[in-house]
Amino acid sequence: MNSSSNTIGAQPRILAEAFDVFIRFGYKKSSLNDIAQAANVSRQTLYMYFKDKPGLFSAAIEQNLRGNLNDVERSLTLALPLHDAVVEAFRLWHGRFSKPVNHFETDFMPSAIKYSGNVLAETEQAFMTLLTKVIVDASKQSLCSTKVEADELTAILNTFSKGLKIEVETEQTYITRMKKACAALL
User: Fold this and answer.
1) Which of 131, 125, 165, 163 lies closest to 149 in space, CA to CA?
2) Minimal CA–CA distance to 85: which of 142, 137, 159, 126?
3) DSSP one-letter string for 75-97
4) Rounded to whole angstroms, how far apart are CA atoms 114 and 9?
5) Is the CB of residue 59 less than 8 Å from the CB of residue 50?
6) What is the spatial distance between Cα 128 and Cα 167, in angstroms, rounded to a whole number?
């Protein structure tokens, strides 16, 4: 199971599996043994790459957020109508994680805020900047008409999306409701 071939280039895989484990169980209930097993590496291999659980958690959050941001950037280069582009960007940023959340049972977000440093704020700001630019460009081309400034509209949609992702059962329901919100606001 934990052969040396599993450790070559293992860091991205470990981070992806660690993120999934942390999302599923929360920070406190996730063990390094759970993560090592999910990544098919030994616990010693985890320590080759990461000093401790907080370091692993922080790195997993950062890899996920930066990967999602890259996915959003790529999606915004596609020739999609504005509504579809905005919905797809939000799906990539929030919608992938759509599921009802009992905030009393998970410590994921408070732990992410505690251990991730500035990466949460930086990537969120980068996401908001990308979307605001898309909306501004669409307004200049008369592809949308809104009475709200583009940055404020982006903030409203982002707030709606954050609430929606923890309310709905499925990604498809998330997409359907985001489409309705974009149709109403853009």
Assistant:
1) 131
2) 137
3) HTTS---HHHHHHHHHHHHTGGG
4) 28
5) yes
6) 22
CA-CA distance, 79 to 82, in Å (whole number)?
9
Q: Supply the pLDDT for residue 49.
A: 94
Query: Who's near 184: CB < 8 A, 6+ residues apart?
Result: none
Structure tokens that stand for 58 in this block: 């922080």
**CB count in 10 Å sphere of residue 94:** 22
Stretches in the chain below the pLDDT threshold 50? 1-4
- For each of the domains in the chain, give its residue range(s) and CATH number, in order of start: 1-50 (1.10.10.60), 52-185 (1.10.357)
Q: Identity (one letter) of the amino acid at 136?
A: V
pTM for the full predicted model: 0.84
Q: What's the DSSP call for residue 6? A: G
Sign of the dihedral defined by the CA atoms of residues 108, 110, 114, 117, in that order: positive
Q: What is the pLDDT of residues 129-164, one digit of tens each?
A: 999 999 999 888 877 777 789 999 999 999 999 999
CA–CA distance, 60 with 53 (Å, rounded to integer): 10
Q: What is the mean pLDDT of the chain?
A: 89
